[in-house]
Amino acid sequence: MNESLDYKQFEALCAQLFGTDEVGEHEWRVREVFELFDANADGALNEEELHRCHEWINATVNPVNVLLIVDVQNDFIDGTLALRKCEYGQDGAEVIKPINRLLKYGRWDKVIYSLDWHPEDHISFFENLGKREVHSESKVTKKSAKVFDTVVFSEPHVTQKLWPKHCVMNTWGAELHKDLHVVPSSEKVYKGQHPDKDAYSAFKEKDVDDTSQVEKILLAIGATHLYVCGIAYDVCVKETCLDGLRLGYRLAVIDDCCRGVKADDVKAAKSLIKKNGGLVTCSYNVLSMVNEGKRSLVMAHNAAKTMI
Fold it and tell me: How wide is the angle at C-alpha 101 spanned by C-alphas 98 and 105, nearest 5°?
């Protein structure tokens, strides 16, 4: 690389990396990335600043791509918490075909499946409401509570949405759907195993070292790009995306490979993912990215922010 790089040269470099259309649409992102790397704000990237920039470029050009499939389990498709019985009326089974296409044709460095994996006495189950005391500050009382209401428990003192009993560990409802392809080299991670803790995000279940199993898998392979899909869009998929973005991954949610609980909440989830630096895209675009080297300036922009 040159000893220094001004903005026009950096913009031209980004056009080579991401394409002129992408740079034209997101020129403000190019400007912000440049200013992030230009630590002394002198309008040029010096040797030290270029070193950090080179790390960013290297991850852009040499991605390590991971597909994270969230909770495509029987109970969310045909069981006790089937999405089609929820307010939005979406069919969770519709994610299986496009996800299988990604699994068949995508060149993935790793595939991870997350699973809700609850004990019988889990705090989120409406059926277990009688086993715990509701706090006096809870607007919903034990007597008036219904499925999908939110209550405040006394011990532990947590705010909790009440769901029908679902994904009880080692039951049919907790199994991945039979039509979902499971690749031999993949990993499975389990969440919500503690009776008094709910865990929507695949990153939520921490080990004794305060690191999740997902993080360990991603760190072990040097993952740079994370593509997230599954069920439910506005709950576990959303929370997984937000945690992945906070950790600095270049992240995209695959819109046609997700289904949700409530229409308004799905819309809000997409907006929140975008706001926090994620890309909302479709499976065909994802295949172009992982197979043909198409690059996203949106995803790279978030990586630059977290690097600095």
Answer: 150
